[in-house]
Amino acid sequence: MRLGIVIGSIWATRKEEGMTGLKLLVIQPIKPDGSFIQTPIIAADRIGAGKGDQIIFAEGSSARAIVPDVVSPLDAAIIGIVDQTEI
């Protein structure tokens, strides 16, 4: 699991069958102190995150698990919206 900030949305009316109904968001991975790392990525969202939200996301096979029993090409998925971070 990693931290990120939602910085935008992606609209795709035609997607792989396993991605039907999934909202796609552009997220900027961050360090716990809020500084940016890497380049932005696209992640699937089923929990209702929005622009400006700090989120927790998973990558790889963990991300694909949000669509059980469907073979999906997902590489990243938002799995939580952060209320507060304390280090």
Structure description:
By secondary structure, the chain is mainly β. It has one helix and five strands. A five-stranded mixed beta barrel has the order 1-2-3-5-4. The longest helix is centred in the C-terminal third of the chain and has 4 residues, at 61-64. It starts with a strand and ends in a 6-residue tail after the last strand. The mean pLDDT is 91.
- Which bin fits the share of residues in helices? under 10%
Count of helical stretches: 1
Strand order of the largest sheet: 1-2-3-5-4
**Mean pLDDT rating:** 91
- The total of beta strands comes to 5
Radius of gyration: 13 Å
Structural class: mainly beta
Low-confidence runs of at least 5 consecutive residues: none
The proportion of residues in beta strands is 35-45%
Tell me the distance between the termini: 16 Å
**Silhouette:** globular
The run of helices and strands is EEEEHE
The main β sheet shows up as: 5 strands, mixed, barrel
Q: Secondary-structure blueprint of this entry?
A:
Layout (H helix, E strand, L loop, with lengths): L1 E9 L12 E8 L10 E5 L8 E6 L1 H4 L11 E6 L6
